[in-house]
Amino acid sequence: MEKKLARLFKGKVVMVTGGTGSIGSQIVSKLLTYPVRQVRVFSRDEHKQFMLQQQYRHLPAGKVSFLIGDIRDRDRVFLAMEGVDIVFNAAAMKHVPMCEYNPFEAIKTNVLGSENLVDAARRENVDIYVHVSTDKAAMPINVMGATKLLAEKIALSANHYRGNRVTRYCAVRFGNVIGSRGSVVPLFLEQIKRGGPVTLTDPAMTRFMLSIPQAVDLVLKSALLTKGEELFILKMPVVKIGDLTRAMIEVLAPRFGHDPKNIEIKISGRREGEKVYETLLNEEEAEKVFENAEMFCIAKKSLSGFSSSKLKQYRSDKVACLKYPAVVDLMREICEADLKEVWK
User: Which domains, from first to last, does the chain contain?
Assistant: First the structure.
């Protein structure tokens, strides 16, 4: 797979929107391990761009291009995408309560911003466009999920009106990416660091979980596999949020000089727009789903290495949750990889 990815990216100009975010920045990092010609980091955060620029200052001039801009700005998007071969769109408003209370802003970024990118990719005859989505887009009940579902549809529908352009549009749908901005993990980490209390909305909630490296791998593999119009979904474990909270306290409290037994957990109740369980694949989508050992793929026809799936739906309340010791092991693994910068 690594050799195939190296061939895919060799000599290519790749743009990552939201390229300074927790997932976007790791996509950038992984891309730079391949023989790309250039990676363009597109985001609106000047400070994070500066910090990322320092991280890659040892690379040849032009290997990484840092572009300040907002995907809402159509002119800026079109200018940034000139000469690009592959696009990964990881830019989004993704905090559920923030979108719930600022719906028009969520629409501008998640919907209209995605439209700008899709149109620019078509005009520039980009080879591959990968849209990063979320489990909240499956049967959405909140603003964030609804806008991300529309963004998915915009990306996948672009395959129907690309005309004689070569662009292949696909999307990937994640569960909760542990350690990413928008997940509960950074919040819990800061609360544990202070000695508690840790505010837990509902211990019975279940969530699909994956690490940032797993999320990045799914994104890159999707670019390799796509023929156009697929929705890729990684197979991932399910955890109870109550178990995740206790596991984080057990693993992290000693690192910050606290006794796990002294960290209090406070139940705060569900936030506006939150679900008790998440859906990655609904019953209607399951009518046309294929799978391999790593992922599901919603597509009109099977891809090489995939076979028809008998899955009827993919919901976090219908999948066996990880046992508590396995959740602790998962958190130890994540802490050693994704969160190691916290205690340096």
Answer: 2-175+211-235+280-312 (3.40.50.720)
